[in-house]
Design a protein that fits this description.
With about 500 residues, the chain is α/β, with parallel strands linked by helices. It contains 18 helices and 11 strands. Strand 2, helix 1 and strand 3 form a beta-alpha-beta unit. The radius of gyration is 22 Å and the shape is globular.
Length: about 500
């Protein structure tokens, strides 16, 4: 992880922040004028389309002309594991980001160690990136149905009119820069990246964005700023390095990584093969939060990042390279547990769907089996269930134990979402809520819809919160409508302009 305690190294906030002033503490103040870009609004009730990735570009630091860069691999990649890593450091007007190339190179090495075929772009302008997206999309189309595909971007990021942008190299990101060149010089996360690959319900697609989340256009009525909240399509996981309206901290030197990517690389290098990618990104979130809130520099603690995750997964995809499992699946299964008691405790943990019980047994599992290969998964369950249990104690969230009755699940996907929601998964909770959506003005279905959407909103799903606000507006309850709309905006969800007009 970076150590900003060294004044010589300097640490600054990422895209959307002013540079540190000479003689300062290394952290700049946020520039209120800097917000972000692009149109093409996200429909709030529709899932995002699928993910796309990209092809290689030469590393300018090596003095090469633009061309595909040959990756140095310790081990050959596996079929069906594809990744594209983009690291944009080069921006004009003193807004360069020295640590980003290290981010990209370190992540490439870590992914190769997990069997990924990695292509990398450094300082790619928008034209090169778009061409690379199309080329990589063709590779992804030809990959097996259960392929694991990862797209990563680190550099300047921004938003305009509810669309997330990834800023191309060379684009002026100064606070006074004209808006149109910023828009034209950026990739739209939804249209230029996520929409390029087909949805893979039997595969895994990941989009990882390590940028700031500040908005360049002030919202009328005080809307929150930040890269817009998104929900993932089936088979997809989306991870942002920080929360809506907040900066991501980057060092001013080339030898240190950002907090988020350092945590991601560390866990890819050290995680047990039993860990899933879903659990991995939740552990990254926990590590970033704990590292920054416990930092010795007060400003780091003050601006501690709170990474955001959206996922829609019903299959566990292990971080382990498949060759290690294929070589001897029987031995791999036998070596999973250290004892019969550990196996029995884990099995019991997997069957729980009531958050208070899940929290208690996850904590007990970690106490009884601290060296377990499944300790990372138990830690994720403990943290998520702890948050969920606290929310269920609140009077303004009307969701009760009977709603977590797995025996009443209408189908396997609902049962899967129920287990995830018990562990604090905000998106699974929203999917359950939508299952209970009804035009009725009273009755148990309406009660469950409201309860689950309240639960999802308090877990952090801004889209669910806005849907709840629209529901209360339809049934002529303006006070709860205003309360949940305010919650949606606080969570970083900015409804498309057309929908906002429909409310007036």
């Amino acid at each position: 992880m970076i150590d900003p305690a060294d004044p010589a190294s300097g640490v600054r906030r990422r895209p959307g922040a002013r540079r540190s002033s000479p003689g300062g503490d290394g952290l700049a103040g946020l520039d209120e004028r800097r917000r972000a870009l692009l149109a093409a609004s996200l429909a709030p009730l529709a899932p995002l389309a699928s993910l796309a990735s990209l092809v290689a570009w030469a590393d300018p630091a090596r003095g090469q002309s633009p061309a595909a860069e040959a990756d140095a691999r310790d081990t050959p990649p596996e079929p069906g594991r594809l990744a594209l890593v983009i690291g944009n450091r080069q921006y004009p007007a003193g807004n360069d980001l020295p640590s980003i190339h290290k981010n990209a190179r370190d992540l490439r090495r870590a992914l190769q160690g997990r069997g990924f075929a990695v292509t990398m772009l450094l300082d790619a302008d928008v034209q090169a990136a778009r061409q690379a997206v199309d080329s990589f999309a063709q590779q992804a189309q030809a990959a097996p149905a259960d392929a694991t595909v990862l797209f990563y971007f680190s550099g300047h990021g921004a938003q305009i009119d509810a669309e997330n942008l990834l800023v191309g190299a060379g684009v002026n990101v100064a606070p006074t820069a004209p808006l149109e060149p910023l828009i034209k010089g950026s990739l739209a996360l939804r249209g230029d990246v996520l929409a390029k690959l087909p949805q893979r319900q039997t595969g895994l697609t990941m989009a990882v964005i390590d940028t700031c989340r500040t908005d360049v256009v002030a919202k009328p009525g005080g809307g929150s700023e930040g890269l817009n909240q998104a929900e993932a399509p089936p088979g997809c996981l989306i991870a942002f390095s920080t929360g809506a309206g907040t900066p991501a901290i980057a060092p001013n030197v080339e030898t240190l990584s950002t907090f988020y990517t350092a945590a991601l690389v560390h866990l890819l290098d050290t995680a047990s093969d039993e860990l899933s990618f879903s659990e991995l990104f939740k552990l990254v979130k926990i590590e970033v939060r704990q590292t920054m809130t416990g930092h010795s520099i007060p400003q780091i603690r003050r601006f501690a990042q709170n990474p955001f995750i959206a996922e829609n997964l019903h299959t566990n995809f292990s971080v382990a390279a498949r060759r290690s499992v294929r070589s001897d699946p029987g031995a791999a299964a036998a070596a999973r547990f250290r004892s019969e008691r550990e196996a029995a405790d884990w099995q019991q943990l997997q069957g729980l769907v009531w958050p208070p019980e899940l929290f208690r047994l996850a904590e007990q599992f970690l106490l009884n089996h601290p060296q377990s290969k499944l300790a990372g998964g138990a830690r994720v369950l403990r943290e998520g269930a702890s948050e969920a249990a606290a929310i269920l104690q609140r009077n303004d969230v009307r969701l009760y134990r009977r709603s977590f009755d797995a025996s009443q699940a209408p189908n396997p996907r609902y049962a899967s979402d129920l287990r995830k929601a018990a562990g604090g998964d905000k998106d699974a909770a929203a999917r359950i809520g939508r299952h209970w959506a009804t035009p009725a003005l009273s009755g148990p279905e309406l009660s469950r819809f409201e309860g689950w959407m309240q639960y999802a909103a308090e877990l952090g799903n801004g889209i669910a919160s806005y849907e709840l606000a629209l529901h209360y507006r339809r049934v002529n309850q303006p006070q709860p409508a205003a309360r949940w709309e305010a919650r949606a905006r606080a969570l970083g969800y900015n409804p498309p302009v057309a929908l906002e007009h429909s409310r007036k």
